Task: inverse folding
């Protein structure tokens, strides 16, 4: 008996809700679906799992849509971003003012990252102080980037 992942069960439940006119279904880890939780529990047995799926979780409506922030609110978050990862969630916003703020802050953060490292030539002294470099195969004379002190 094959055990399905929760992702696989979600995909099957989504297809099921497209065809069935019910508000809730129950699935077992082997991929069987039931209208009644008791039937699902009986099928799963004492060691099996039963998963509950509600149709409303698979439908999109304005009530379920995330709240849209104003451009001014998004720009405030952009300006407060401390790193490129924090900024990434705003990359797809198409509003002109948001785009401009995103691009400017991205540039600032990229510049900050560049300034935090410097390129140095590897010496024997550097290899002696950092045996991990030897393990990585770094050789004398190579140029590497290291954090600025």
Result:
């Amino acid at each position: 008996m094959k055990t399905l992942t929760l992702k696989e069960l979600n995909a099957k439940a989504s297809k099921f809700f497209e065809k069935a006119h019910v508000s809730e279904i129950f699935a077992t880890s082997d991929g069987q679906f039931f209208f009644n939780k008791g039937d699902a529990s009986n099928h799963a047995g004492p060691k099996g799992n039963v998963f509950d799926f509600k149709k409303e979780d698979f439908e999109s409506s304005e009530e379920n849509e995330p709240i849209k922030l104003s451009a001014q609110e998004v720009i405030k978050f952009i300006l407060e971003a401390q790193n490129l990862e924090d900024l990434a969630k705003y990359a797809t916003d198409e509003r002109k003012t948001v785009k401009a703020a995103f691009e400017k802050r991205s540039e600032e953060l990229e510049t900050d990252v560049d300034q935090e490292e410097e390129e140095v030539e590897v010496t024997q002294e550097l290899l002696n102080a950092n045996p991990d470099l030897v393990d990585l195969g770094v050789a004398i004379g190579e140029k590497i980037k290291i954090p600025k002190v």
